[in-house]
Hints:
Blueprint: H1 3-38, E1 61-65, E2 68-69, E3 72-73, E4 78-85, E5 89-92, E6 100-101, E7 109-111, E8 117-121, E9 128-134, E10 139-142, E11 152-155, E12 160-163, E13 177-183, E14 188-191, E15 205-209, E16 223-233
Parallel strand pairs: 1-16, 4-9, 5-10
Antiparallel strand pairs: 2-3, 5-6, 7-8, 8-9, 11-12, 11-16, 12-13, 13-14, 14-15, 15-16
Amino acid sequence: MNAAIRWGWIGVVLVFVAAGVIFAFRATDTADTTDASSTAAPSTAASPTAFVDPNPDQPTKSEIVVAVEGGRPAAGYTVEEAGQASSCYRRKDGQEDGLASCSAGVDVCWAGPEPTTLLCGLKAWEKKLARRVADGPIKEIDASGYEPPPWGLELANGAKCVRRTGGSWGGRADGLIGAYSCEGASGIVLDGDDPLLDQSKPAWTVKVGPLGDDPTTVFPPPEKIRVVTAYFAKSSA
């Protein structure tokens, strides 16, 4: 065997030896790490995503929103044109007496200057209205026995939430359903057999968690988050 071939084979052998040493070192290192983690005590620290309320006992503030007075936007409100609205109805009696709703997420509307004109709120905490024209007569419904949830919620974790007005939402294995969509934080406000708003203390709370496309998805129990402000819409002060 000539020298070139011999040194070539020696090189191949050295490569395999080195690879074996590296593999053995890595296997030993992995085994040591696995052993250490398997004997460690379970962590009792809070989840890094869990919210810790700095003022858990601060009472919830109720804010009444009257965005339209005498068919005109209240002081400070701006109006944008939003076209037609369908399937509109006006509540008679109850907490939202005189307010109207329509299809397609048009939930809180005040009477405008004309019989079929509505000035509809976009978000409870914003001084913005959308002018809509009903495509037919605005029917009246008896709402005397209806106790509506707040139009909007501001939560202690910074989320601002608007109540659900229909549509197809996801689910979860514990049977809780979506009640408010939120911006500014993950999760949505959930509802179930218990009251949506826990008002047993001056600091109201709601349950917040995710929904999945599969209604059998198992999620951790929802968090209880304090409501900083609850917004209620009224037709007049």
